[in-house]
Amino acid sequence: MKLSILAAVAVLSPVAALAHDGMHANDAYARSTNPKVGAVFMQLENHRQVACTLQGVSSDAAERVELHTHVEEGGVMKMTRIEDGIAVAAGQTHALNRGGDHIMMLGLAEPLADGDTLTLSMDFGDCGTEEVQVVVDNQREDAAPADHHHGDHQGH
Ligand SMILES: [Cu+2]
């Protein structure tokens, strides 16, 4: 009898360890300076052993949700659409922030008011789909200096 209990414990333990596996979206917030357009920022944490790519995002709050980034063209930062997804390496965090990669909501059903909560369905392909709650904070200041475009190099 004792042997079978030990065997059951040994089988259960790895399952518990897997419970926190997957993609996490931390500190997600949305901001809008236009009644029809908003942007979403967050920290994408990959707790998996493999790279995961954000393929696309959908939400009832907007007609279209696109993945965007900024590129410099002749000294001017321009927003462009990302076609091949946003990859997050195994065990790494990728920031979606102003001046860098971000999620763009086009054709908002309603203007974004401070304190509103949006639900985004984030498609990570083989890594699964995550429902993420995003709080609207139109007043929030960007942590990164506006004149620097290397968002990953924020020192403080
Ligand atoms: Cu954009």
From TrEMBL:
UniProtKB keywords: Signal
SUPFAM superfamilies referenced in this protein's UniProt entry, alphabetically: DR1885-like metal-binding protein
Coiled-coil spans in chain: none
Signal sequence, renumbered to the chain: 1-19
Keyword Signal: yes
Domain of life per record: Bacteria
Pfam families, sorted: PCuAC
InterPro entries (UniProt xref): LpqE-like, Lxx211020-like, PCuAC_sf
Keyword Magnesium: no
PANTHER family: BLR7088 PROTEIN, COPPER CHAPERONE PCU(A)C
Protein name: Copper chaperone PCu(A)C
Originating species: Paracoccus marcusii
